[in-house]
Amino acid sequence: MMNSILLQAAPNAGYMQLVLLGGMVVVFYFFMIRPQAQKAKKAKKFQEDLQKGDKIVTIAGIHGNVNKVNDDNTIQIEVSPGSFMKIEKSAISMEWSDQLKKAAVTK
């Protein structure tokens, strides 16, 4: 009796598995891959558009103001009055004012 029930469901089971697998791929794309790609694109654009006077935070957590933008993918930041650091543009995490806005929202 059980074999006849399983055999009746077998022809449609293959199509249903393909539909479910396709659905999982779509869900992974829209909820994981696409947002990460958009975030990376936004960060790259921010790094390219840096100007003197921008307040930034590095990936190491160092806060500073952009003092000079060099052509060789480096910038010079002022971390305290008279104290400067030369860092790669790729080491910049976000804008300092964005972090302050996020902190105000969480309070």
Write the layout of secondary structure elements.
Blueprint: H1 2-48, E1 55-58, E2 63-69, E3 74-80, E4 83-88, E5 92-95, H2 96-106
Antiparallel strand pairs: 1-2, 1-5, 2-3, 3-4
Question: If you had to describe this structure to a student in words, what would you say it looks like?
Answer:
Helix content is 54%, strand content 26%. The protein has 107 residues and is α+β, with helices and mostly antiparallel strands. A hairpin with a 4-residue loop joins β2 (63-69) and β3 (74-80). The mean pLDDT is 82.
CATH architectural label of the largest domain: Roll
User: What is the averaged pLDDT score?
Assistant: 82
CATH class of the largest domain: Mainly Beta
What is the structural class? Answer: alpha+beta
Total beta-strand segments: 5
Radius of gyration: 25 Å
The gist of it:
With 107 residues, this protein is of the alpha+beta class. It contains two helices and five strands.
Notable characteristics:
107 residues; alpha+beta; SH3 type barrels; 2 helices; 5 strands; 26% strand; rod-shaped
